[in-house]
Write the structure tokens for this entry.
Amino acid sequence: MMKNAVKIVLLVGLVCWLFLDSNPRLKPVAAQGDATQRINELAEAVHLQNLRTHNVTRWRGGDLGEMNGSEINAPAGTVFADWYFTDLYDESIEIDTSSMTRPAAINIWASWCGPCRFEFPFLAEMARAGGLNYDLWFLNANDDPDAAQRFLRNDIEGGADGLTLYVDPGDAYIRSIGLQVFPTTLLIDTDGTILLAHSGIVTRTVMEFFNAVAAAPSEGSIDTSTIEVPEFIATLDPVDAASATPIVYYQQVTGEITDEQWQDVYSFEGKAGDEVTIDMTSTEPDFDAYLVLFGPDGERIAENDDGPNPPYSHLELTLPSDGTYVLVATRFLERDGLAEGGYNLVVSKAGAELGNQIIFDIPVSSRLTTDFTQAAYLMDAKAGQVLTFTLEHDVPTEILHLEVRLGAGERVVPFESTENGLLTYEATIPQDGSYSVYVSRPMRSRAGAITFTLMVSGVNADGTPATNGLETATDTSSGGDAGSDGGQAGGDGQVEATLAYGDSVTGSIDDSTPFHLYEFEGTAGDTVVIQMVADAGRTLDTQLTLYGPDGTLRGANDDADMTTTDSELTYTLTDNGTYQIVASRYLSTDGTSFGDYTLTLTLGSGETNSGGETPTTPPVVSNPPTGNAEGMEIEYGTTVVGAVDSTNLEQRYVFVGKAGDIVTITMQRTDGDLDSYLSVFDAAGQELVFNDEDFAGIGKDAAIRRFKLPADGTYTIVATRYGAFNGLSAGTYELVITVEN
């Protein structure tokens, strides 16, 4: 099949939604001055942008960007008159050059292509808005028409309404032009001449260029070898230091980048020789943060797109002089950026690991969303200090939770909630140490972004003002991620009941309350059995998850066996402390089942830590491993690739772990429509944990995050697809296994 020979262009920073609302329909070229000058200006802008995105554009007036093999084989100016397309919904309807009355932009796409799916909403809005100098067509190729129609029906607002949708029969057209990547967008004249061919995701600037060329196809040309490529390439609006928001070292601030407000400006005072780190972290998975720093003389001295953890942005440098530094927080491609979203920003001194450090009397602000539900900080404190925690947020009808604890031990702030947007809590520190501070929103919350500010202040035991001075922060060796679980660990919802062995509780699951959280005190060595049974009618497809005292994942179960959709989880506790049970439905907040249930916690017997009494529930895994299961041997830090289809249902990987290892396994689709599914089994063949949809990702990738291994031994990872032998998806994937400790 051609799909294996066609590459997908998936550019860093270009994998997000874009809406035309902030970009009114393009002006006619005649209203923009001289056509040739305008075309050449846009051509230079597209060339520089292509160098950043690694896209290419073929044009009669000169190819733009660095040719890298992704461009179509046919040069601009080539005439392809012998072609026809059929309607996506009615193959009896055909179109060819004889039907054309003006130029057409042809967006070549496929439903399995991630970048195609990301750019489609933007192009759909352009097509519906009209006012262009060309017709905009969508040509589906190398795809299943049913899958294409399903994507339009389920994922595009308005579906196919107002769109011109064609299919390339037998992929004849894309073969004739020598298509190399999806997506590719062409501009063709009425005789079939290729005027432009852009390989990769389009932007506003690219479509403005299309519009200008469509109005004057014979105008314009540039020599890209004469274009000077600047060292710093972010294109910003004028930056006014006087109107910048002042911040100080270690003060975390939050903001939001939109199509209307796509850059925020801050300032801070620095001294020559200060070693600083600047971190801008995204609170939405699609948002691609970008930082630009200006020195006291107004000259740009640094900028960064992707730090160690894209799409976050990170700068680390030594300040060259005393004075006021200006910091611009924006997004990749700035005005042309393809995402809106929130961010958290902090400037730290002497080390990149202090971004989430709480310093007394310096406020920290953050933005919590349905994707970024918890913020975690470290705070150094001394025995006898009496501290006041003040938590405020901007949506008073919602609640946020505050929890402070020393490691996995004593809770200084147990689990307090705001009321009318405010919480004030006083606590006495029991012993010296580095405390973990968590601010979270309930998982059931359906509100938009919630922005909070947290301030910690207080007095020492002798009554003097409490400090944990900046020198203390610089000595802290723990990173800002200590205790953070990315939203998967327990503790980010309201505990509804504390259970004892033998207790049963009832509850109800629906769209407004997709899960309930319970806790119990356990002792290492206890074997617990947790059962979640749906009431008569069995509409509810239950799901159980168990978290340990340290917030790590200990087990999960969807179906107790192949005859039921009820859940049962058996686990031998490895630590003393408070455990949390999440009672939910299959797919939790994304699920559709609902109904009442009864949950029972009992003290059982045995030594197995299983996600159910049976090793697995077909068709989740077609053949669960037993005994010394065969599989590719991998180690922590390994990245492997594989494929799943109807003839190759699963891949198995074997690794050796130790009790207490906190393991994360991700399975990310790289091609096809694969709906990934992960399971982990112990040496006895018992399924310990599984995952279908990665809560921290986009689409249908799978991830098991921060799973704490219950014992030393050999573990087997089964990488498959949702439904296994009953599933329909197929494709390639990349699997990564890492360990925290």
Residues 2-226 form a domain with the Glutaredoxin fold (CATH 3.40.30.10). Confidence is low (pLDDT under 50) at residues 1-33, 471-492, 606-629.
